[in-house]
Sequence to fold (162 residues):
Amino acid sequence: MNPRLAAIYALYDVIIGRQSLSLTLHEQLAKIDKPADRGLCQEIVYGTLRYYPSLQATLAPFLQKKITQKNKPLEILLCAAMYQLYLLKLPDYAVINESVAVATAIDFVWAKGFINGVLRSVVRAQKPTLKIATVCVTIIYGNCNSTILRPFPILTIKIPWY
Fold:
């Protein structure tokens, strides 16, 4: 199986299906033959999830209107492609070509031109900078609260005093 296709399936199951990342990723990695491809798939999944809010914020200016919930796999595909372009620094022609192939494989044949156009616009952008979607992370130490700004989704951790 194509590592990018497996990554999109895993991302969809985690983001939309609210399934466990470890179980979903393990299932998808089992379908990939080559160890190098398994590594690519794992990196795309972990990296896209790590920077997902930032990738969404970076993608928004390249879209004329917001992607509907029905077409959420397209947004996931575009975010994964942007992660490959910006942070993995893979060749743009390879990322765009593979993203269009993945769109065909997940039955979004009608969106091939859309994905090609959006990703070409991203590549043509003057200075490709990843927008950091900063949100508040609250860490609770017993009765003491500490707030830190991080580029991650909101997370609350309770650490008991011993």
The CA atoms of residues 96 and 117 lie 9 Å apart. Helices lie at 3-15, 21-30, 35-50, 52-59, 72-86, 92-105, 112-124. The two ends are 49 Å apart (CA to CA). Residues 136-143, 145-162 have pLDDT under 50 and may be disordered.
